[in-house]
Amino acid sequence: MASRNGAATLPKVLDAYCRLAAPNGGWRLLVVDNGSTDGTPGLLAAYADRLPLQVLHEPQPGKNRALNRALTVALALEQPDDALYIFTDDDAAPAPDWLLQWQACAAAHADYSVFGGAITPDWAAPPPDWLLPLVPTGLTYGLTSPSLPDGPVFPGLVWGANMAVRRRVFAVGHRFDLCIGPNGAEYAMGSETELTRRLGLAGYRAWFCGAAQVAHHIRRHQVRMEYILLKSWRFGRGQFRQQRPGRFIEWFGVPRWMLMRFLLEVAELARAALLGDVARKFRHRWELAFLRGYFYEAWRGVPRAQRTVLVSSYSGELGGMELRMAQEVRYLHAAGYTGMLAMRRFGGVDEWARRLAAEQIVLAEFSPPEIFEGGWRWRTLRLLRARLAARRLRAFQAGLVHVAFCWTNYGASILWMATHCGLPSVISVHNAFPPTVFTDWHDKLLHRAFGGVRGVYAVSDSALAHFMTIYRPYLPADARLAVIPNSVDTECFKPSIAAREQARQRWQLPQPALVIGVVARLSAQKRPAMAIQVFALLRARFPTLYLVLAGTGPLESVLREQVTHMGLLPWVIFTGFVEAVHELMPALDVHLLMSRNEGFGISTIEAMACGVPAVATDVPGSADILRGSPCGLLVPADAPSLAAEAIAALLADPVRRADMGRLGRAEAVRRYSNAVVGQQVRAFYDGLL
Fold it and tell me: Is residue 341 predicted with pLDDT exceeding 80?
């Protein structure tokens, strides 16, 4: 729970916690002091020896900010993914069997991840007779009756004073939206329901459990009419922030039906006043307050565009950078922002777009004129076309443009267009670029393009250093700089004996054989031909050795000819594109990446997460991961024979491989998991949107 100046209600609540029956496995209580100026800190200290209590401090006002602070601490604990995180308020007193009921409910409904419990009123004074028949107590006070039947429930009806969410939901990156809920001033209502509705869209199911009960204290002033109408206004503001645009025809930025409804409510209010019907008059005032809150947020609140990030790049194929761009959108969605992808067409993009659509990720086609990427010829015409094409960029209605740089200036045209449109931007750097020299004409345009950059992050220290060597003169002095590595889903990529056996059966690999795998595009950068040379050198010593090349690319036909010419065809498996790489990776004994350069080798950390020793060339990007690490080996970039010697020693030592795999798994979880990297991404964006 979060508490800001809760000294008036906390004693009763904490006394109720002292009477709780402990569930199997025990429990912990995290209370975040959200900048209290009353006696809250001392009061919490007085209960330290009576409860399994940990007090955290978040001085910046904001209930959701405080809850996210608690989540950071909770996720650092060693717990199973189905563990239950229960959220409540500092004025909600639980029943003695509260935790027992939650534990039983979660165990009985393992397929559900979001749970809502009963919230009964604890009136400071008896409510007036007119209140209960007229006021929607659910929206006004967050009450839910224990008489409601247990069963699946719309996630938006799970209220914050008594809700539970499984740990795995937050482990993949979901957090409370910082732009909604109590923040120490006037605010848009919907602190927890924004999260639960978002989780519903993400596919998590919700269950109502009436036996898990808390009593929500309702203060004397909260039954007054002015408070109730203020709550309706806040509810209207929150509804706007939670509403996805495009569902209804809009006039003046709000649904047309709402404007018509407002006029109707005004007419009905006048009629009720003439008839002296107090009850009907109040109902119409409540509806009008809700609509006014919605309109206020639409016309004077935070524009939707300021919460939308357009992630784009100069892209020509589906590779590690593109997968990271999609992951960026997932992180944004989990943090409560709207994110979408926009890029050029390339082979396989339609199928990828269909897969992303299942996750509610939009991938739009966007092919801007190439001011920088297209070279010197026709440069003035391309610049003119870029000015005209800026309307297309504005049409995405984004408040921030994220441009991914895959190579030296590949993406700079989009950056220039964003600045031309007056849109701020951030840059992510996905490779270690070689030095370059710009013409005077391009130099002037680069100064213009970088003028709106608010931040830059690179996937490795090497990538950032190379980028800054080239672009430091163009970058604003106050631009935020960070290194945020690529991530791996450690819940998906993990050691598995069953997956190892199944993958070997699928690809007709003998179970006792030694297998080297290369998961990478079959392109010049990854140098798969050199990996085949290394494999040929190893075959003489290890006759049961196989090579798996997982990926597609322009070199595939050349590589097949190479393997056939070398007489290696029976022992080299070309898998083509593998969507479920996590099912293949555990089948390997060693993963090899012979790249000539890397920004950050995603397949390297995927191998580590699966407990597979990783071997890569000693080049920037790969070296950032493996230098000084006991999880794998760095080999010379241009000496296949030396690489073969190092790998041979590894193949001959199963104990060493097992140790590398164990340590690699631990390092992947600690440094590269979605939860860890997602937190770094959220911190990078904090304050930029």
Answer: yes
Please tell me the distance from the alpha carbon of residue 360 to that of residue 91, in angstroms, as a whole number. 36
- Evaluate whether 2-221 and 497-672 have a shared fold: no
Q: Is the pLDDT of residue 305 over 60?
A: no
Buried b (16+ CB within 10 A) or exposed e, 16-55: bbeebeebeeebebbbbbbbbeeebeebbeebeeebebeb
Q: In 425-570, which ranges are continuous DSSP H helix?
A: 440-449, 461-471, 497-506, 528-539, 556-565
Gap between the Cα atoms of 689 and 560, Å rounded: 49
Report the chain's C-alpha Rg in angstroms.
29
Our CA dihedral for 668, 674, 676, 680, rounded to 10 degrees, sits at: 130
* Angle at CA of residue 107, ends 102 and 113, nearest 5°: 75
Q: In the beta sheet, which residues pair with residue 590? A: 516
The residue assigned the tokens 């199928």 is 351
Among positive and negative, which fits the CA dihedral 675, 678, 683, 684? positive
Average pLDDT of every residue of the chain: 90
Q: Which CATH class is domain 2-221?
A: alpha beta
Residue 212 has φ and ψ, to the nearest 5°, of -85, 105
Give the Cα separation of 662 and 666 in Å (integer).
Answer: 7
Q: Is 79 helix (H, G, I), strand (E, B) or coil?
A: coil
H-type alpha helices, 276-344: 278-300, 320-334
Q: Fill in the DSSP letter of residue 21.
A: P
Smallest Cα–Cα separation from 457: which of 177, 683, 628, 174? 683
Q: What DSSP character marks residue 53? A: E
Q: How far apart are CA 535 and CA 30, in angstroms?
A: 54
User: Which contiguous run of DSSP H or E holds residue 217?
Assistant: strand 206-218
For 402, the enclosing helix (H) or strand (E) is strand 400-405
In terms of CATH, what superfamily is 497-672?
Answer: Glycogen Phosphorylase B; (3.40.50.2000)
- Name the strand (E) or helix (H) holding 238: helix 225-242
pLDDT tens digit string along 196-221? 988 887 788 999 999 999 999 999 99
Where are the chain's structural domains? Answer: 2-221, 239-300, 319-487+676-685, 497-672
**What's the CA dihedral at 671, 675, 676, 677 to 10 degrees?**
100
- Tell me, what DSSP letter sits at residue 305? G
Determine the Cα–Cα distance for residues 616 and 274; give it in Å rounded to an integer. Answer: 82
Which segments of 122-215 does DSSP mark as H helices, in order? 131-134, 137-141, 167-171, 191-201
* Architecture per CATH, 319-487+676-685: 3-Layer(aba) Sandwich (3.40)
Give per-residue pLDDT as tens, 506-540: 999 998 999 999 999 898 989 999 999 999 999 98
Q: At what angle do helices 379-394 and 412-420 cross, to 10 degrees?
A: 60
Nearest to 664 by CA among 617, 616, 619: 616
The pLDDT of residue 302 is 59
Measured between alpha carbons, how far is 463 from 673 in angstroms, rounded to an integer?
20
Q: What are the C-alpha distances in Å from 667 to residues 74, 656, 662?
A: 20, 16, 9
Indicate yes or no: pTM above 0.85. no
First to last CA, the chain: 26
- Beta bridge partners, 120, equal 215
- Whole-angstrom distance, CA of residue 329 vs CA of residue 676: 16
The closest of 671, 606, 604 to 632, measured between CA atoms, is: 604
Backbone angles phi, psi at 457, to 5 degrees: -130, 145
Q: Kindly report, residue by residue over 408-452, the tens digit of the pLDDT.
A: 888 888 898 899 988 999 999 998 888 888 888 888 889 999 999
Under 8 Å between Cβ of 486 and 463:
no
